[in-house]
Design brief:
Order of helices and strands of chain B: HEHEHEHEHHEHEHEHEH
Oligomer: heterodimer
Number of strands of chain B: 8
Number of domains of chain A: 2
CATH topology of the largest domain in chain B: Rossmann fold
CATH superfamily of the largest domain in chain A: ABC transporter involved in vitamin B12 uptake, BtuC
Largest interface: A-B, 43 and 37 residues
Number of helices of chain B: 10
CATH class of the largest domain in chain A: Mainly Alpha
Largest sheet of chain B: 4 strands, parallel
Number of strands of chain A: 4
Radius of gyration of chain A: 29 Å
CATH superfamily of the largest domain in chain B: Nitrogenase molybdenum iron protein domain
Structural class of chain A: mainly alpha
Low-confidence stretches of chain B: 13-21
Mean pLDDT of chain A: 83
CATH topology of the largest domain in chain A: ABC transporter involved in vitamin B12 uptake, BtuC
Distance between the termini of chain B: 71 Å
Helix content of chain A: over 70%
Strand content of chain B: 5-15%
Strand content of chain A: under 5%
CATH architecture of the largest domain in chain A: Orthogonal Bundle
CATH class of the largest domain in chain B: Alpha Beta
């Protein structure tokens, strides 16, 4: 492995961590698309920066780009606070407006310059090792490694310092306000970090990868845990895993690095989406199937409780009386037998004491809707966990 | 943070064994467009390693780097590229590399600027598609030879010899093309293509060149552009319009439809190679073959 390859992976990993941290909070606050919005709305900042400095390579351009990112966030928040439109609509209103201001500024005043977002921010991971930083003539590594490294350091410091505040204001704005923490300040602080990270990472790895690294690892982690710290750790791990695996996929396929990392991110999310133990699609489908069976079981038990007549309780007649398909009737019978809720004598079904108690409790629950009575039943049945 | 270190350690372990730097004592030369790759292969022959970044059919305006390109650039001693913003942001990357042990050479930048076609709107910008003027391509060949000879004096004789042969080929090409084009009456010399790649060709052979899109293929043609161009085609009774191998044919088909809707007919005269050569194994995979093919297609369809 050459040093350039190592540097690319290192930059990708650092960007992955730097994106996963604000990304986790953005996903929790349902503002994930803000990173995509920022990657477009920074254009006017870059244009104004160019008018001031007349230099495409000035750091002021990137600074003003980050500032426009924060303005984006403030405007989105302002529109959203009116309560007339939702978050995603507010985002969709703000960033095209800012982007088009940038386009018009270029068309009016700078048509003879190759001025667009791509011209100022490199956005190509493959070339990051070739843009190096020299201090007193000594090569100290790729420039973007230093940029994203600094951003990561600031992000981690802020995260550690304000973890409690971030946590409370993310999950309970009212509580945060009553504790004397200003949700607005925390919010803008977080959004500023997201904005600076987006702009810095944009320069290192490109727009699509930044958006993917902010959202996909956090979204996957969201499906696996309800603990904020665990979610952060999982998001960071997914980000790093995808960055490194994605790089080697690109190596084997000789394909675009950013494209491969994004693909791996998508694949990681898909796997979690399918197989997450509680929130995954397969787990949810299994649970719904169980719940349907249990609703049938309850109907069946109620039927037994209400009918003492032998003909109503004959196994062969159950199909007609409760209108079940054969298969389900068998599943339900087996389930009831397994739990010792029924007895079958001469093909006539009767409730056991346990079955009788269960049915009474279930009826009570349905009528009063109180949880306390069925605590001990929750372990056996999905139905009462909801 | 422990996890990060762990992941890095794992990567290091399973990748440490891979290092495929080509080092057989020959110069490692990286080129961008397939035209330049073909040229450098002709001059350098077996005496150098040539690796092109952009394959056939790749639009240099929209080129995306692959992982393998990183290794090619890391190992490169010399990088030959077109320049004049043809390769977009890549040009900046090359320029930044010059402080290291690599020599990036922009072939188009080394031409006499006063002979280039300046952009209508941008004072300091030039049309980068200079290779369609064979005289400019001969300048490219001389520049490549000089750079190679300077970097690898041992093989300088070989390079000079190859250059002589190649320049003769180019002169013959120029002669043949003039002959074919003379069959086409002057009033029929109007070339309508997807984007403005053929201005130097037009200048050299008296063609009026109209591109549907601007110089950069990143811009899109508007509805008005299509309608205006359709009227133009009808007014000048142009028989054929052309697709380019590296630009989607959708816009040219839209133009054909626009002409049809006005009650006239124009055929698609074929596919021209503009920003990239054809398949390396085919005749169009070389600069000379590509030029002959383009001329045959243009003259055949317009006559």
């Amino acid at each position: 492995m050459s040093s350039a390859q190592l540097e690319i992976q290192l930059i990708a990993c650092i960007v992955a961590v730097a994106c996963a941290i604000p990304g986790t909070f953005l996903v929790l606050r349902k503002m994930a698309m803000i990173s995509d919005a920022i990657s477009h709305s920074i254009l006017p900042g870059i244009v104004v920066g160019f008018f001031i400095t007349q230099d495409l390579n000035s750091p002021l351009l990137i600074l003003l780009a980050a500032l426009t990112g924060i303005i984006t966030v403030v405007l989105v928040e302002y529109i959203q606070k009116t309560g007339l439109v939702k978050e995603d609509t507010a985002i969709g209103l703000v960033f095209p407006a800012l982007f088009s201001i940038g386009v018009i500024l270029i068309a009016k005043n700078a048509n003879d310059v190759h001025l667009d977002v791509d011209a100022v921010l490199l956005g190509e991971l493959a070339f990051a090792p070739f843009d190096r930083l020299f201090i007193n003539g000594t090569d100290v590594g790729p420039k973007s490694l230093w940029v994203v490294g600094t951003i990561l350091l600031i992000t981690i410091t802020l995260l550690i310092l304000f973890f409690k505040e971030l946590k409370i204001s993310t999950f309970d704005k009212g509580l945060a306000a009553s504790l004397g923490l200003s949700p607005a300040i925390i919010h803008y602080g977080l959004m500023s970090v997201a904005s600076v990270t987006t702009v810095g990472a944009f320069d290192a790895v490109g727009a699509i990868l930044v958006v993917a690294l902010m959202i996909a690892p956090a979204a996957a982690a969201y499906l696996l845990t309800t603990d904020l710290k665990k979610m952060l750790a999982l998001a960071i791990s997914f980000g790093i895993f995808s960055a490194i695996l994605g790089y080697w996929v690109a190596h084997w396929l000789d394909a675009s690095i950013a494209g491969s990392i994004t693909t791996v991110l998508g694949f990681v999310f898909l796997m979690v989406y399918l197989f997450a133990p509680l929130k995954g699609i397969i787990a949810v489908m299994y649970r719904e199937k169980q719940q349907r069976t249990e609703v049938s079981l309850l109907t069946f038990l109620l039927h037994l409780k209400n009918h003492d007549e032998v003909e109503e309780r004959h196994v062969n007649h159950l199909n007609e009386h409760i209108n079940w398909q054969k298969v389900r009737a068998k599943t339900v019978l087996d389930l009831a037998l397994k739990n010792n809720m029924i007895l079958i004598e001469n093909n006539v079904v009767s409730l056991t004491k346990k079955g009788n108690d269960f049915t009474s409790k279930a009826i009570d629950y349905i009528i009063t809707n109180e949880d306390a009575q069925i605590e001990d039943m929750k372990d056996d049945f999905f139905l009462f966990r909801g | 943070m422990k996890k990060i270190t762990l992941f890095l350690a794992i990567t290091l372990i399973f990748t440490a064994c891979k290092d495929a730097a080509k080092d057989n004592g020959k110069l490692n030369v990286v080129t961008t467009t397939s035209m330049i790759t073909d040229l450098v292969k002709n001059i350098g022959g077996d005496a150098i390693n040539v690796q092109g970044l952009m394959g056939s059919g790749v639009d240099p305006h929209l080129y995306k780097a692959s992982e393998g390109d990183v290794t090619k650039l890391v190992d490169a001693d010399i990088i030959f590229f077109n320049g004049l913003h043809l390769e977009g942001k890549l040009v900046d990357v090359f320029e930044k590399m010059s402080s290291q042990t690599k020599t990036p050479i922009s072939l188009a930048e080394s031409l006499d600027k006063s002979k280039l076609i300046g952009s209508e709107y941008f004072a300091s910008n030039y049309d980068p598609h200079v290779w369609f003027d064979i005289d400019f391509f001969k300048e490219f060949a001389k520049k490549v030879t000089n750079v190679l000879a300077e970097k690898d004096p041992k093989n300088a004789e070989i390079f000079r010899e190859n250059e002589k042969h190649y320049l003769t080929d180019l002169d013959k090409l120029k002669n043949d093309i003039q002959g074919v084009i003379n069959q086409l009456p002057a009033e029929k010399r109007i070339l309508v293509t997807a984007h403005d790649a053929f201005n130097y060709f037009g200048q050299a052979y008296g063609f009026k060149v109209v591109g549907l899109q601007g110089i950069s293929t990143a811009t899109e043609a508007g509805v008005q552009d299509v309608q205006k161009l359709a009227s133009f085609i009808i007014q000048y009774k142009i028989k054929a319009i052309f697709i380019e191998s590296s630009v989607p044919k959708r816009t040219i088909e839209a133009l054909q439809e626009a002409v049809k809707s006005k009650g006239h007919d124009v055929i698609i005269g074929g596919t021209l190679y503009s920003d990239a050569l054809g398949n390396p194994d085919s005749l169009e995979g070389t600069y000379v073959g590509m030029y002959r093919y383009n001329i045959k297609t243009i003259v055949g369809a317009l006559n």
